[in-house]
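Exercise: predict the fold of this chain.
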Amino acid sequence: MITYHDLPLGKIDHCQVCGNKNLHSVIDLGHQPPCDSLLWPRQLDEAERVYPLRFQVCHDCSLAQIDYVVAPEELFFPDYPYRSGITQTLVEKLSRTALATLERYPFAGGSLVIDIGSNDGTVLSAFQKRGMRVLGVEATNIARLANESGIETLQAFFNEDLGDQIIASHGPASVIAATNVFAHISGLGSIMRGVSKLLVDGGVFVTESHYLLDLLETVQYDSIYHEHLRYYSVKSLIRLFDQYGFTVADIERIDNYGGSIRVFAVKGRNQAVSPVVREMLENENKAGLYGTEIFDRFADRTRKARRDLLALVLDIARRGERIVGAGCPGRASTLLNYTGLDPSLLPYIAEQSTSLKLGLFLPGKHIPIVDEKRMLEEQPEYVLMLSWHYAAPIIRNLRLKGLKSKIIVPLPEVHVIEN
């Protein structure tokens, strides 16, 4: 058993994939609160927990990671305020997981599909519509919503023991999915052993994670937070899956969350491998992903983006003009806490009316989260687009609703959209 894949809480000094201690420090984003630990008004006068947020890369397998593990129960608590199914754009992107998988691996109808971190069942719903049996595993209370909508869901953290229970109750699976959660789980060894037990030989484990090369090229320092323990390259994923007898058989580069990869790992060694896998490895090498210069350049660009945004906001404030935030994804917490923007400069963050975050406050900076109707009524001179990785559709939607404000897009470089 590979012991270094099951991480202890607190500081870690080794690579989370290959175990080596040959790590290169990239950037320190300071001590920050967990990004989704949003506060109720009654909590504003209480002490908040903050943890180190340091970004590193392994010289040996090219995995990037943070170096501190926060307890999963603190990060993914029962009232975790996130639903994948409230944004049509995201529903369409997540539904593509089922299409992409079944196009490549046309398992028979009635085959079992399991989704780890299934949230409200959006991904499984797409599999279910295509004749598959489905089972979700979701640690938060969102599991209740999935069950109410007809997606059988277990409210639990997935691990090896739960995998044994599922085999006994539901039988083996042909497909296991983990969309935007595979980089989050500290018990990586337990999840891999559980997946290996659950899948039939030739079954596929499809994961979607932020792609390291996209993160670096588009300066997504705001996607670095405590939930995201690992930032995968193709090279590091091949190394990881090989340790458990899986073949990385195909990869699809997708635009989810500002740039991700959908990876199809087939249970069994020496499986057929798409030429895309080799092409992506060659592309990573050409981009310099296996060296340190690209990471040092990312750190420099991050510091510049921080300075430029703060300078722009301060200039707007000096002129007596108003600026508010729009969208409050988890990454907004990293950006605002690292940049230092607080309610004196950004009086509120506007979210859509269906958001579970309304009435809460951003951790660390205590910026209130309000219904976007207020922003549309007040028409501030500027709006800071915190969901900048989906800027185009969001801006189009806000313009249709009547927003006339100038839009500040903070990354990769700060710029202003005037119409």
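Check your answer against the key: Residues 294-417 form a domain with the Rossmann fold fold (CATH 3.40.50.720).
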